[in-house]
User: Which sequence fits this backbone?
């Protein structure tokens, strides 16, 4: 009887040990599953984060510049603007567009000069750029005394001369700003000078290479 009781005790003890081991293994398995779920969730979060960053970067990409702009010219003929002229016109304010009016047609009113300068004449001004690259800055010069002074034939030193050159081939060169207004003063800067007009008095000041020269405008 004592031997039978001893065997039963050993059997029960072994059985308990097996149950404990099984429970421990099951616990480890659950821990592994939980860790796997955490890792998977972290991976998904990182993936979503990466996608959000990419989308944000994509949204900040600037729109492409217009390759061409079609508008009605004078007299009621469609005119196509290209390169920096098209870009400038597309970005011009309503005030600038109203001041320019319709584009003029004909080879003498638009094209490329020997220097590479491109231009488009309008009823009330001109858009001009140093070359035909769309990334080149173009500028709007509206009609008035400033434009008249720029178009006055001048000797190399800037003094008015019948045998001189005017516009962009002249001593002032290509504009480097639009026509700007500050109080009574309108002004345009050029590669080699500046022209300003006091709109109250009508006085025009022309500077070439840092020196004031006769405006040549009445």
Assistant:
């Amino acid at each position: 009887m004592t031997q039978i009781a001893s065997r039963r005790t050993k059997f029960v003890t072994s059985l308990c040990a097996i149950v404990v081991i099984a429970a421990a293994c099951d616990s480890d398995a659950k821990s592994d599953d939980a860790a796997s779920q955490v890792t998977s969730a972290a991976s998904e979060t990182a993936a979503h984060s990466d996608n959000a960053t990419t989308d944000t970067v994509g949204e900040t990409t600037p729109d492409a510049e217009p390759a061409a702009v079609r508008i009605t010219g004078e007299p009621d003929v469609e005119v196509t603007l290209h390169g920096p002229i098209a870009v400038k016109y597309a970005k011009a304010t309503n005030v600038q567009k109203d001041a320019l009016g319709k584009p003029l047609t004909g080879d003498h009113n638009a094209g490329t000069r020997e220097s590479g300068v491109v231009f488009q004449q309008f009823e009330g001004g001109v858009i001009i750029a140093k070359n035909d690259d769309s990334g080149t800055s173009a500028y709007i010069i509206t009609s008035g005394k400033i434009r008249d002074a720029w178009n006055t034939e001048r000797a190399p030193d800037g003094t008015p001369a019948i045998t001189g050159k005017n516009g962009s081939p002249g001593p002032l060169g290509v504009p480097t700003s639009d026509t700007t207004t500050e109080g009574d003063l309108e002004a345009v800067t050029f590669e080699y000078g500046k022209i300003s007009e006091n709109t109250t008095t009508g006085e025009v000041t022309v500077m070439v290479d840092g020196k004031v020269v006769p405006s040549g405008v009445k």
Q: What stands out?
A: The mean pLDDT is 78. Helices lie at 2-59, 83-91, 94-100, 145-150. Residues 69 and 86 are 5 Å apart (CA to CA).
